[in-house]
Amino acid sequence: MKHISLKVTVPLCSFRRGTAREFLETERIPPPSTVYGFLLSLMGEWDRYRYSGTKIAIVIVRKPEISRILRTVWRFKDTKKGPGIGNNKTLDYQEVLSGLEFGVWIQQGELAQRVFSTLSKKGIGTERSGGLSLGESRDLVDQVDLNPEWTWETGYWLEKDSAGKICLPVWTDHVGAKGTKTQQFTLKEKPIRCPEEDAPQWIAMSPQE
User: Fold this and answer.
1) Which domains does the chain possess?
2) Which carries the bigger pLDDT value, residue 85 or residue 32?
3) How far apart are the first and last CA of the chain?
């Protein structure tokens, strides 16, 4: 199995920045850890360590629009009152992205083979639960295309860059922040085609440095 690529369309999504508090800012592009989680969900895989070390590459096909919404969120300030009652709720502003389209390349190997099998067989034999989302359950994926034609397009590639201004998680610790691994990136506009083997677009999905 060679490298494979997917084109993913998400109507509405948000990737909350780790430093965001009252104003819930979103990253402008899906973090690698989120994309990796999406791939696991697509296959119905619960063990995220199973494909640790696999490399993926992410390109933004169409930049999404950014909107700001006002929402009510629950918090726990008064233990004598129930969730969402009185001062156990507050208002927060949140950024959301609409119309996100991105591509993801998966390095040849077991993960690429399984994703290819899942999509080419239209999910036959795949056991999964819930809707397919990019991050939170509300961020439902609209369409996934397997190995589409890219030759006529250019996009914005996420490239590893120690001096880059974009810091994104490549592995997330869901219990605490100690095990979360981040990297610095930059966005570069280039033709959409499979990156060379040593290209900076390839990102290793691993909790190790």
Assistant:
1) 4-149+194-204 (3.30.70.2660)
2) 32
3) 27
